[in-house]
């Protein structure tokens, strides 16, 4: 319904211009106040809903960052646990080395009771009984310069200690000195001729040792006790029942370290998950669900303990039982040393796996943060206002309003002239 007031065309045009300017100023002030050019779906449906989707995904990734961070700490805790266990294993190696450096007192020994040379033979040769015996040829008819082993019955010596055996041949011209040297090369026994010209053989380890003289035919070794008696008089190896006090003192030290190893592995958990106690860890990297859509990493745990590493206890005994080690037994100490070396190899493998998993998770953490930044920037580009441009627009609109008011005033001056005539 018309107001009944008639405006000139110029006035009406200026008024419409002022109204447009006021509307633009209102929009401009809203953008300056909110910092956004799209505040609702009414402003720009496409930009608004696209920005909402991007922001929602960024928020979902932000929620995953906490899980990723916990995953990193869990892997780091396990890795530190492996480092601690590795350090303990190296200390245990030191204990084993100490035990090995202390001579065992229970080495098997064979003290021959037959003199391989007589005083008369030594006097004739102008040598000691020992040197005379060492210079004698082993094989051949017994005489002044020959021990007298029959090569048709025995031209080999066989030594056996535990599961290790060593066989060597006696040549036609080999002397007792050659025989002694061959025994020393075996690694399982040492030999010497004492001052009485008697053969003495001592095991290098604590295992029971045997020595035989014989001959091999068709791949089968046949021993001849009578031929060996020409070297030893048939004396068997004996083992003393003594123990090394120094080795005994290391038993508790080794076993305490073993206990500490188990405790270190048990204490390597974080937030209820211990990768060294057999727990597994799943870290999600995206917000999607479903096997084909979800991005994740499954970290497999290890049940780490002294038992799983093959490290038994030290026992102050001469005989090892089960997985334990007999500290008074050289061979058992060698087994302990080998077990610790194998344990270190296993620990290196576990540490390498954790290191690889940690690197993967840290890379995904960095990627997730960067992806969130991309999403947030993309959403902001769709809805955020250019504040510099809006500030400039505000000043321009203020100037435009001032000019519009002035123009409206000028347009009304014609009507004021008519009013003056009417007066």
From TrEMBL:
Q: Which GO terms describe its cellular component?
A: bacterial-type flagellum; extracellular region
Domain Flagellin C-terminal intervals: 339-422
InterPro entries from the xrefs? Flagellin, Flagellin_C, Flagellin_N
Q: Which Pfam families match?
A: Flagellin_C (PF00700), Flagellin_N (PF00669)
Q: Which UniProt keywords apply?
A: Bacterial flagellum, Cell projection, Cilium, Flagellum, Secreted
MF GO annotations: structural molecule activity
Q: Does the keyword Secreted apply?
A: yes
Question: What subcellular compartments does it reside in?
Answer: Secreted; Bacterial flagellum
Keyword Secreted annotated: yes
Q: What is its main location?
A: secreted
Domain Flagellin N-terminal, chain residue ranges per copy: 10-105
Function per UniProt:
Flagellin is the subunit protein which polymerizes to form the filaments of bacterial flagella.
Q: Which family is this sequence assigned to?
A: Belongs to the bacterial flagellin family.
Q: What is this protein called?
A: Flagellin
Protein species of origin? Methylorubrum populi
